[in-house]
Amino acid sequence: MSLKTKKTSIRKKLICFVLAFVCAFSVIMPYYSPIASADETLEDLENQYKEIEDRIEKNEKELANVEKDIRTNEDKLEDLESQISDINDQIDLLDERMDVLNGDIDSLQESIDLTTSDINVINSQIAEIEAQIAETDALMDETREMLLLRIRESYMSGEASTLELLFSSGDISSFFARKELVTRVSEEDSLLIAELTAKVAQLDELQTQLETQKTELETKKTQLDSQMDTLNDRQSDLESSITTQQGKKSEATKKQDEVKYLLTELDKDSEAYKKTIARQRKEREALEAEIDEYIRQHGSTQGDTPDEEYNNDGDMLWPVAGETRLTATYPSYSDGSPHWGIDIVKSDGNTRGQPFRAAQGGEVIIAKNDGNWNSGFGNYCVVDHGDGTQTLYAHSDGLVVKEGQIVQKGQKLGAIGATGNVTGPHLHFEVRVKKADGSVSRVNPLNYVSKP
Ligand SMILES: [Zn+2]
């Protein structure tokens, strides 16, 4: 290194130091008392960044866990719903069989009722006949008593026999008169007895017939009762099956309710995490804006002539050598959240530790190599190319450049890594442009660099 170059380098460093101090002071001005030291305040600001980013990281991890739980529980719920649907099918089938059986039971019960009513009719007929028989028997007994009494009277009055009548008759006419009377009485009695006897026989026969009918009906009823018993057994079997199925169903429904409740709770958790993340993303966006503000105040502007030392040839270089591919593009991730750059990995998968390089010559205006979260960028640096363009390189495992350092196009800036908010090692590359009106915009890097 020549003396002139060394002197220039020292002068540059001094300028950079002063510039850094002024920059830091102007950044913290809106937030901190002017009497606070610039170094302390910058450190506070960085700590603030880190704290917020740590909270975002923690919440995103918890959200991922909650979402995983939700998926697991949704699977469980689906499984339970299919179980319940199966059980419902079985219950429907059993209900159908039960309906058929109930129809059978109803018609059988009708038959039993009819038979029972027939038996009741027969029974009442039998009772009636029995009453008549009893009445006739009583009448016969009465008649017999009456005859016996009359014979006894005849005997005692000497009219016990025809002979007695003959001998006891004073004259023949009185004999004949008496005999005729006795005979008539006797004939009437005999007729009565014969009539009564015939009636008893008739009633007995009727009773026998009715008893036979009754026996037949009772046999029929016994058969029907036995059929009824069989049907009742089947019914109680079916009822117990239905009870079992309903038990299973209510168990499954209970589980389903539990899972649904759990899902509701998880959804609440998920909503809470999402809200927290959204709020913290807002905070991060504010911090991103502060970087823009830093560039606005201290970066080069479109139309500026780059320092000769930068050797800015106006044609940016792809920041990673060799075969590469993109895993995310500008201006948003696949989920729609903002992404102000492109994510580059090595095609062979061997990304971590590989070098990344300056897309253009310039001055390193920001270099954070503290291993902190740094708004999700991890270790990162910003190079100002002197013509209003600034490039940003994030998630490095380690930078090899410092703030204020002049770099050449293609010069190694650090190793690709996985610091900050990443799911795997990659280079996050951004291009920001400061326009003549002083506004800074984060533009699509693919309008400035193209993959070889
Ligand atoms: Zn990225």
Describe the fold and architecture.
The structure is a single chain. The strands form 2 sheets. Strands 1, 2, 4, 5, 6, 8, 10 and 11 form an 8-stranded antiparallel beta sheet that branches. This protein has a 3-stranded antiparallel beta sheet with strand order 3-9-7, with no helix packed on it. It has helices at residues 3-28, 38-156, 162-168, 172-298, and strands at 324-328, 342-346, 355-357, 362-368, 379-384, 389-396, 398-399, 406-407, 412-415, 427-434, 440-443. Mean pLDDT is 80; it is low at 1-37. The protein has 3 domains: 1-36; 44-155 and 202-298, Helix Hairpins; 302-452, Distorted Sandwich (Glucose Permease (Domain IIA)), CATH 2.70.70.10. Helix 1 packs across helix 2 (38-156) and helix 3 packs antiparallel against helix 4. By secondary structure, the chain is α+β, with helices and mostly antiparallel strands. The radius of gyration is 60 Å and the shape is rod-shaped. 62% of the residues lie in helices and 12% in strands. The protein is built from 4 helices and 11 strands, in the order ααααβββββββββββ. A hairpin with a 4-residue loop joins strand 5 (379-384) and strand 6 (389-396). Zinc ion binds next to loops. Residues 328, 339, 341, 343, 428 line the site of zinc ion (ZN).
Mean pLDDT value: 80
Chemical compounds bound to the protein? zinc ion
Tell me which CATH architecture of the largest domain applies here: Orthogonal Bundle
CATH topology value of the largest domain = Helix Hairpins
Order of helices and strands: HHHHEEEEEEEEEEE
Query: What's the number of helices?
Result: 4
Shape: rod-shaped
Q: Tell me the fraction of residues in β-strands, as a range.
A: 5-15%
**Main sheet attributes: strand count, strand direction, barrel closure:** 8 strands, antiparallel
Total domain modules: 3
